Amino acid sequence: MNSPISVSTLNTQIKSLLETTFINVYVEGEISNLTYHNSGHIYFSIKDENSTISCVMFKGNTKYLKFQLEVGLKVVITGTITVYTPRGSYQLLCNKIEPSGQGALALAYEQLKAKLHAKGYFNPEIKKTLPKYPKKIALVTSPTGAAIEDMKKVASHRWPLIELVLIPTLVQGDEAKFDIVSSIKFAQTLDVDLIVVGRGGGSVEDLWSFNEEIVATAIYECQKPIISAVGHEIDFLISDFVADIRAATPSNAMEIALPDINEHRIYIDTLSNDFQNRLKNQLLQKQTQLENITKLFEQNSLKSKFNYIQEEISLLKKNFQIYIKNVLQMKQNSLNVLQETYKSNHPDKKNLEGYAQVTMDNKITKLEELKIDDIITLQSSKTLVSCRVTNIKKQ
Protein backbone atom coordinates (compact mmCIF):
# COMPACT_ATOMS: atom_id res chain seq x y z
CA MET A 1 0.00 0.00 0.00
CA ASN A 2 1.41 3.43 -0.97
CA SER A 3 2.05 6.01 1.70
CA PRO A 4 -0.27 9.08 1.61
CA ILE A 5 1.14 12.45 0.55
CA SER A 6 0.51 15.80 2.14
CA VAL A 7 -1.93 18.36 0.83
CA SER A 8 0.95 20.70 0.09
CA THR A 9 2.68 18.00 -1.93
CA LEU A 10 -0.48 17.38 -3.92
CA ASN A 11 -1.00 21.07 -4.60
CA THR A 12 2.63 21.39 -5.61
CA GLN A 13 2.32 18.50 -8.04
CA ILE A 14 -0.89 19.96 -9.46
CA LYS A 15 0.83 23.35 -9.79
CA SER A 16 3.76 21.80 -11.63
CA LEU A 17 1.46 19.86 -13.93
CA LEU A 18 -0.84 22.79 -14.77
CA GLU A 19 1.88 25.40 -15.20
CA THR A 20 3.93 23.17 -17.50
CA THR A 21 0.90 22.05 -19.47
CA PHE A 22 -0.92 25.38 -19.86
CA ILE A 23 2.01 27.72 -20.48
CA ASN A 24 0.36 29.74 -23.26
CA VAL A 25 -3.40 30.10 -22.83
CA TYR A 26 -5.53 32.13 -25.28
CA VAL A 27 -9.07 32.34 -23.91
CA GLU A 28 -12.18 34.51 -24.40
CA GLY A 29 -14.77 35.35 -21.76
CA GLU A 30 -16.85 38.04 -20.05
CA ILE A 31 -15.40 40.01 -17.14
CA SER A 32 -17.02 39.76 -13.69
CA ASN A 33 -16.00 40.33 -10.05
CA LEU A 34 -13.61 43.10 -11.09
CA THR A 35 -11.29 44.70 -8.51
CA TYR A 36 -8.58 47.32 -9.01
CA HIS A 37 -6.34 46.77 -5.99
CA ASN A 38 -4.37 49.54 -4.26
CA SER A 39 -1.21 47.62 -5.06
CA GLY A 40 -1.82 48.20 -8.77
CA HIS A 41 -2.82 44.57 -9.44
CA ILE A 42 -6.16 43.79 -11.11
CA TYR A 43 -8.27 40.84 -9.89
CA PHE A 44 -11.31 39.59 -11.78
CA SER A 45 -13.00 36.55 -13.29
CA ILE A 46 -13.99 35.66 -16.82
CA LYS A 47 -16.97 33.48 -17.57
CA ASP A 48 -19.11 31.96 -20.28
CA GLU A 49 -22.54 30.32 -20.10
CA ASN A 50 -21.31 27.36 -18.04
CA SER A 51 -18.02 28.13 -16.27
CA THR A 52 -15.93 30.77 -14.48
CA ILE A 53 -12.18 31.12 -13.94
CA SER A 54 -10.33 33.54 -11.69
CA CYS A 55 -7.81 35.90 -13.29
CA VAL A 56 -5.07 38.29 -12.15
CA MET A 57 -2.98 40.87 -13.98
CA PHE A 58 -0.03 42.11 -11.96
CA LYS A 59 1.07 45.73 -11.89
CA GLY A 60 4.01 45.12 -14.21
CA ASN A 61 1.66 44.24 -17.08
CA THR A 62 -1.15 46.70 -16.34
CA LYS A 63 0.91 49.60 -17.73
CA TYR A 64 0.52 48.07 -21.18
CA LEU A 65 -3.25 47.94 -20.82
CA LYS A 66 -4.63 50.71 -23.06
CA PHE A 67 -8.29 50.53 -22.05
CA GLN A 68 -10.25 50.30 -18.80
CA LEU A 69 -11.57 46.89 -17.76
CA GLU A 70 -15.30 46.91 -17.07
CA VAL A 71 -17.73 44.31 -15.72
CA GLY A 72 -19.60 42.70 -18.60
CA LEU A 73 -16.88 43.54 -21.13
CA LYS A 74 -15.96 40.61 -23.37
CA VAL A 75 -12.18 40.19 -23.68
CA VAL A 76 -9.53 37.89 -25.14
CA ILE A 77 -6.73 37.03 -22.70
CA THR A 78 -3.23 35.72 -23.36
CA GLY A 79 -1.57 34.23 -20.32
CA THR A 80 -0.66 31.14 -18.32
CA ILE A 81 -2.31 28.98 -15.70
CA THR A 82 -0.85 29.35 -12.20
CA VAL A 83 -1.75 27.65 -8.91
CA TYR A 84 -1.78 29.34 -5.52
CA THR A 85 -0.46 26.44 -3.48
CA PRO A 86 -1.61 27.52 0.05
CA ARG A 87 -5.24 27.45 -1.09
CA GLY A 88 -5.00 24.86 -3.78
CA SER A 89 -6.73 27.26 -6.19
CA TYR A 90 -5.70 27.97 -9.73
CA GLN A 91 -6.12 31.13 -11.78
CA LEU A 92 -5.28 32.62 -15.11
CA LEU A 93 -2.22 34.88 -14.98
CA CYS A 94 -2.90 37.53 -17.65
CA ASN A 95 0.00 38.86 -19.71
CA LYS A 96 -2.13 40.64 -22.34
CA ILE A 97 -5.80 41.58 -22.57
CA GLU A 98 -7.59 42.75 -25.71
CA PRO A 99 -11.26 43.63 -26.14
CA SER A 100 -13.15 41.03 -28.11
CA GLY A 101 -14.18 42.18 -31.59
CA GLN A 102 -12.35 45.54 -31.55
CA GLY A 103 -8.92 47.02 -30.94
CA ALA A 104 -7.79 47.98 -27.47
CA LEU A 105 -6.95 51.54 -28.56
CA ALA A 106 -10.36 52.03 -30.13
CA LEU A 107 -12.08 50.89 -26.96
CA ALA A 108 -9.78 53.00 -24.79
CA TYR A 109 -10.56 56.01 -26.98
CA GLU A 110 -14.32 55.57 -26.63
CA GLN A 111 -14.08 54.93 -22.90
CA LEU A 112 -12.02 58.05 -22.24
CA LYS A 113 -14.18 60.13 -24.55
CA ALA A 114 -17.32 59.09 -22.64
CA LYS A 115 -15.63 59.71 -19.30
CA LEU A 116 -14.40 63.21 -20.17
CA HIS A 117 -17.71 64.14 -21.78
CA ALA A 118 -19.46 63.22 -18.54
CA LYS A 119 -16.99 65.41 -16.62
CA GLY A 120 -17.79 68.39 -18.83
CA TYR A 121 -14.42 68.58 -20.61
CA PHE A 122 -16.15 69.03 -23.99
CA ASN A 123 -18.72 71.62 -22.88
CA PRO A 124 -18.87 74.31 -25.62
CA GLU A 125 -19.88 76.95 -23.07
CA ILE A 126 -16.42 76.89 -21.45
CA LYS A 127 -14.50 77.19 -24.70
CA LYS A 128 -12.27 80.28 -24.74
CA THR A 129 -12.39 82.73 -27.62
CA LEU A 130 -9.29 83.11 -29.77
CA PRO A 131 -7.75 86.60 -29.96
CA LYS A 132 -8.51 88.33 -33.25
CA TYR A 133 -4.98 89.70 -33.69
CA PRO A 134 -2.52 87.58 -31.66
CA LYS A 135 0.97 88.97 -31.21
CA LYS A 136 2.68 85.83 -29.88
CA ILE A 137 1.81 82.13 -30.17
CA ALA A 138 3.41 79.22 -28.30
CA LEU A 139 3.89 76.06 -30.37
CA VAL A 140 3.95 72.84 -28.34
CA THR A 141 5.38 70.39 -30.85
CA SER A 142 8.49 68.59 -32.01
CA PRO A 143 11.32 70.88 -33.18
CA THR A 144 12.29 68.42 -35.92
CA GLY A 145 8.93 67.41 -37.38
CA ALA A 146 7.27 68.67 -40.54
CA ALA A 147 4.53 70.30 -38.47
CA ILE A 148 6.72 73.13 -37.18
CA GLU A 149 7.97 73.97 -40.67
CA ASP A 150 4.44 73.95 -42.06
CA MET A 151 3.23 76.26 -39.30
CA LYS A 152 6.14 78.67 -39.75
CA LYS A 153 5.58 78.80 -43.50
CA VAL A 154 1.86 79.50 -43.23
CA ALA A 155 2.37 82.05 -40.46
CA SER A 156 5.00 84.02 -42.41
CA HIS A 157 2.73 84.28 -45.45
CA ARG A 158 -0.49 84.88 -43.58
CA TRP A 159 0.58 87.34 -40.85
CA PRO A 160 4.30 88.28 -40.86
CA LEU A 161 3.84 90.33 -37.68
CA ILE A 162 3.32 87.21 -35.54
CA GLU A 163 5.99 85.97 -33.14
CA LEU A 164 6.17 82.19 -32.74
CA VAL A 165 7.64 80.63 -29.58
CA LEU A 166 8.64 76.99 -30.04
CA ILE A 167 8.48 74.76 -26.96
CA PRO A 168 10.34 71.57 -28.00
CA THR A 169 8.17 68.63 -27.02
CA LEU A 170 8.11 64.85 -27.42
CA VAL A 171 4.99 64.00 -29.40
CA GLN A 172 5.41 60.22 -29.74
CA GLY A 173 6.32 57.38 -27.43
CA ASP A 174 5.54 56.30 -23.88
CA GLU A 175 7.01 59.46 -22.30
CA ALA A 176 5.42 61.89 -24.75
CA LYS A 177 2.26 62.42 -22.70
CA PHE A 178 4.27 63.66 -19.73
CA ASP A 179 6.34 65.99 -21.90
CA ILE A 180 3.22 67.39 -23.58
CA VAL A 181 1.66 68.12 -20.19
CA SER A 182 4.87 69.79 -18.99
CA SER A 183 5.10 71.93 -22.15
CA ILE A 184 1.46 73.08 -21.87
CA LYS A 185 2.00 74.14 -18.26
CA PHE A 186 5.20 75.98 -19.22
CA ALA A 187 3.51 77.69 -22.17
CA GLN A 188 0.80 78.95 -19.85
CA THR A 189 3.44 80.91 -17.89
CA LEU A 190 4.70 82.72 -20.99
CA ASP A 191 3.46 86.04 -22.34
CA VAL A 192 1.62 84.48 -25.28
CA ASP A 193 -1.86 85.05 -26.62
CA LEU A 194 -2.64 81.41 -27.41
CA ILE A 195 -1.11 77.93 -27.58
CA VAL A 196 -1.04 75.45 -30.45
CA VAL A 197 -0.57 71.81 -29.42
CA GLY A 198 0.03 69.31 -32.17
CA ARG A 199 2.08 67.27 -34.56
CA GLY A 200 1.95 65.90 -38.09
CA GLY A 201 0.24 62.73 -39.25
CA GLY A 202 0.93 59.17 -38.19
CA SER A 203 -0.65 55.91 -37.12
CA VAL A 204 -3.08 55.61 -34.23
CA GLU A 205 -0.20 54.48 -32.03
CA ASP A 206 1.93 57.45 -33.12
CA LEU A 207 -0.80 59.91 -32.21
CA TRP A 208 -1.90 58.16 -29.04
CA SER A 209 -0.23 60.59 -26.63
CA PHE A 210 -2.94 63.11 -27.53
CA ASN A 211 -5.59 60.58 -26.42
CA GLU A 212 -4.20 60.36 -22.89
CA GLU A 213 -6.28 61.61 -19.98
CA ILE A 214 -3.46 63.63 -18.39
CA VAL A 215 -2.98 65.54 -21.67
CA ALA A 216 -6.72 66.20 -21.87
CA THR A 217 -6.71 67.46 -18.28
CA ALA A 218 -3.75 69.77 -18.93
CA ILE A 219 -5.59 71.28 -21.92
CA TYR A 220 -8.82 71.59 -19.94
CA GLU A 221 -7.11 73.35 -17.01
CA CYS A 222 -5.02 75.70 -19.18
CA GLN A 223 -6.00 79.36 -18.73
CA LYS A 224 -4.93 80.38 -22.24
CA PRO A 225 -6.78 79.47 -25.45
CA ILE A 226 -5.53 76.24 -27.03
CA ILE A 227 -5.79 74.95 -30.57
CA SER A 228 -5.40 71.20 -31.03
CA ALA A 229 -3.70 70.47 -34.37
CA VAL A 230 -2.88 66.78 -34.47
CA GLY A 231 -2.49 64.57 -37.53
CA HIS A 232 -4.56 64.92 -40.66
CA GLU A 233 -8.10 66.08 -41.29
CA ILE A 234 -9.55 62.58 -40.78
CA ASP A 235 -7.86 62.17 -37.37
CA PHE A 236 -9.96 63.06 -34.33
CA LEU A 237 -8.12 62.96 -31.01
CA ILE A 238 -9.32 63.48 -27.46
CA SER A 239 -7.28 66.68 -27.42
CA ASP A 240 -9.43 67.95 -30.31
CA PHE A 241 -12.58 67.68 -28.22
CA VAL A 242 -11.09 69.28 -25.11
CA ALA A 243 -9.26 72.15 -26.82
CA ASP A 244 -10.97 75.46 -27.47
CA ILE A 245 -10.58 74.96 -31.24
CA ARG A 246 -9.78 71.90 -33.32
CA ALA A 247 -7.62 72.37 -36.42
CA ALA A 248 -7.61 69.74 -39.17
CA THR A 249 -3.80 70.04 -39.56
CA PRO A 250 -0.97 72.11 -38.04
CA SER A 251 -1.09 74.37 -41.11
CA ASN A 252 -4.81 74.83 -40.61
CA ALA A 253 -4.10 75.88 -37.02
CA MET A 254 -2.17 78.88 -38.33
CA GLU A 255 -4.98 79.69 -40.76
CA ILE A 256 -7.45 79.65 -37.88
CA ALA A 257 -5.26 81.55 -35.41
CA LEU A 258 -3.98 84.29 -37.70
CA PRO A 259 -5.76 86.89 -39.84
CA ASP A 260 -4.96 86.99 -43.55
CA ILE A 261 -2.79 90.03 -44.28
CA ASN A 262 -3.88 90.08 -47.94
CA GLU A 263 -7.53 90.24 -46.95
CA HIS A 264 -6.70 93.10 -44.60
CA ARG A 265 -4.80 94.90 -47.35
CA ILE A 266 -7.84 94.63 -49.60
CA TYR A 267 -10.04 95.70 -46.71
CA ILE A 268 -7.82 98.73 -46.03
CA ASP A 269 -7.90 99.66 -49.73
CA THR A 270 -11.67 99.36 -49.66
CA LEU A 271 -11.85 101.53 -46.55
CA SER A 272 -9.52 104.06 -48.15
CA ASN A 273 -11.62 104.24 -51.32
CA ASP A 274 -14.79 104.43 -49.30
CA PHE A 275 -13.27 107.20 -47.18
CA GLN A 276 -12.19 109.14 -50.26
CA ASN A 277 -15.64 108.80 -51.82
CA ARG A 278 -17.37 109.78 -48.62
CA LEU A 279 -15.00 112.72 -48.15
CA LYS A 280 -15.56 113.83 -51.75
CA ASN A 281 -19.32 113.58 -51.34
CA GLN A 282 -19.17 115.45 -48.07
CA LEU A 283 -17.06 118.21 -49.60
CA LEU A 284 -19.43 118.49 -52.58
CA GLN A 285 -22.39 118.56 -50.25
CA LYS A 286 -20.77 121.21 -48.04
CA GLN A 287 -19.75 123.21 -51.12
CA THR A 288 -23.35 123.17 -52.33
CA GLN A 289 -24.57 124.16 -48.89
CA LEU A 290 -22.00 126.97 -48.75
CA GLU A 291 -23.06 128.26 -52.16
CA ASN A 292 -26.71 128.19 -51.11
CA ILE A 293 -25.91 129.95 -47.85
CA THR A 294 -23.81 132.53 -49.73
CA LYS A 295 -26.68 133.20 -52.13
CA LEU A 296 -29.09 133.40 -49.23
CA PHE A 297 -26.74 135.75 -47.40
CA GLU A 298 -26.36 137.90 -50.47
CA GLN A 299 -30.11 138.01 -50.88
CA ASN A 300 -30.56 139.08 -47.26
CA SER A 301 -27.53 141.36 -46.98
CA LEU A 302 -27.88 145.14 -46.36
CA LYS A 303 -26.55 145.79 -49.82
CA SER A 304 -29.20 143.56 -51.34
CA LYS A 305 -31.87 145.15 -49.22
CA PHE A 306 -30.68 148.65 -50.17
CA ASN A 307 -30.59 147.63 -53.83
CA TYR A 308 -34.09 146.22 -53.52
CA ILE A 309 -35.35 149.38 -51.81
CA GLN A 310 -33.59 151.53 -54.42
CA GLU A 311 -35.26 149.51 -57.17
CA GLU A 312 -38.59 149.91 -55.42
CA ILE A 313 -38.01 153.64 -55.11
CA SER A 314 -37.02 153.86 -58.78
CA LEU A 315 -40.09 151.86 -59.75
CA LEU A 316 -42.33 153.99 -57.57
CA LYS A 317 -40.72 157.13 -58.98
CA LYS A 318 -41.22 155.88 -62.51
CA ASN A 319 -44.79 154.85 -61.79
CA PHE A 320 -45.39 158.19 -60.11
CA GLN A 321 -44.05 160.03 -63.11
CA ILE A 322 -46.25 157.96 -65.38
CA TYR A 323 -49.20 158.57 -63.10
CA ILE A 324 -48.55 162.31 -62.95
CA LYS A 325 -48.12 162.41 -66.69
CA ASN A 326 -51.38 160.54 -67.17
CA VAL A 327 -53.16 162.82 -64.72
CA LEU A 328 -51.76 165.88 -66.42
CA GLN A 329 -52.73 164.49 -69.79
CA MET A 330 -56.24 163.83 -68.54
CA LYS A 331 -56.46 167.33 -67.11
CA GLN A 332 -55.05 168.72 -70.34
CA ASN A 333 -57.66 166.79 -72.27
CA SER A 334 -60.38 168.06 -70.00
CA LEU A 335 -59.01 171.55 -70.34
CA ASN A 336 -58.98 171.17 -74.10
CA VAL A 337 -62.58 170.06 -74.04
CA LEU A 338 -63.53 172.97 -71.84
CA GLN A 339 -61.56 175.25 -74.06
CA GLU A 340 -63.37 173.95 -77.13
CA THR A 341 -66.67 174.22 -75.36
CA TYR A 342 -65.88 177.68 -74.30
CA LYS A 343 -64.90 178.58 -77.80
CA SER A 344 -68.04 177.08 -79.16
CA ASN A 345 -70.14 179.08 -76.69
CA HIS A 346 -68.24 182.27 -76.99
CA PRO A 347 -70.56 185.26 -77.44
CA ASP A 348 -68.72 186.24 -80.54
CA LYS A 349 -69.89 183.05 -82.18
CA LYS A 350 -73.44 183.75 -81.20
CA ASN A 351 -73.44 187.02 -83.24
CA LEU A 352 -72.83 185.16 -86.43
CA GLU A 353 -75.48 186.17 -88.93
CA GLY A 354 -78.21 183.60 -89.45
CA TYR A 355 -77.35 181.68 -86.25
CA ALA A 356 -79.35 181.60 -83.01
CA GLN A 357 -79.35 179.47 -79.94
CA VAL A 358 -82.45 177.36 -79.24
CA THR A 359 -83.46 177.09 -75.60
CA MET A 360 -86.48 175.66 -73.87
CA ASP A 361 -87.09 176.14 -70.20
CA ASN A 362 -83.78 178.05 -70.04
CA LYS A 363 -81.90 175.07 -71.37
CA ILE A 364 -80.12 174.72 -74.65
CA THR A 365 -82.11 172.30 -76.74
CA LYS A 366 -81.42 170.47 -79.95
CA LEU A 367 -83.84 170.90 -82.81
CA GLU A 368 -84.22 167.12 -83.09
CA GLU A 369 -85.70 167.07 -79.59
CA LEU A 370 -88.49 169.56 -80.22
CA LYS A 371 -92.15 168.61 -80.53
CA ILE A 372 -95.24 170.34 -81.92
CA ASP A 373 -96.55 173.16 -79.67
CA ASP A 374 -93.25 173.32 -77.68
CA ILE A 375 -92.52 176.90 -76.58
CA ILE A 376 -88.93 177.70 -77.39
CA THR A 377 -86.67 180.72 -77.33
CA LEU A 378 -84.33 181.78 -80.12
CA GLN A 379 -81.48 183.72 -78.70
CA SER A 380 -78.61 185.71 -80.10
CA SER A 381 -76.31 188.06 -78.34
CA LYS A 382 -78.70 190.89 -78.89
CA THR A 383 -82.17 189.43 -79.31
CA LEU A 384 -84.57 186.91 -77.64
CA VAL A 385 -87.55 185.59 -79.67
CA SER A 386 -90.25 183.34 -78.18
CA CYS A 387 -91.82 180.91 -80.59
CA ARG A 388 -94.27 177.99 -80.80
CA VAL A 389 -93.41 174.96 -82.83
CA THR A 390 -96.13 174.53 -85.42
CA ASN A 391 -94.47 172.23 -87.88
CA ILE A 392 -91.52 169.77 -87.79
CA LYS A 393 -89.98 168.50 -90.95
CA LYS A 394 -87.31 165.80 -90.78
CA GLN A 395 -84.64 165.86 -93.45
TrEMBL record:
One of its GO terms (molecular function) is nucleic acid binding. The keyword Cytoplasm applies. Signal peptide: none annotated. It catalyses: Exonucleolytic cleavage in either 5'- to 3'- or 3'- to 5'-direction to yield nucleoside 5'-phosphates. Its main location: cytoplasm. It is found in: Cytoplasm. The keyword Heme does not apply. Residues 121-349 form the Exonuclease VII large subunit C-terminal domain. Keywords: Cytoplasm, Exonuclease, Hydrolase, Nuclease. Its EC number is 3.1.11.6. It is an enzyme of class 3 (hydrolase). GO terms for biological process: DNA catabolic process. GO terms for cellular component: cytoplasm; exodeoxyribonuclease VII complex. Residues 5-98 form the OB-fold nucleic acid binding domain. It holds the Pfam family Exonuc_VII_L. Belongs to the XseA family. Heterooligomer composed of large and small subunits. NCBIfam families: xseA. Bidirectionally degrades single-stranded DNA into large acid-insoluble oligonucleotides, which are then degraded further into small acid-soluble oligonucleotides. This is Exodeoxyribonuclease 7 large subunit. The gene is xseA.
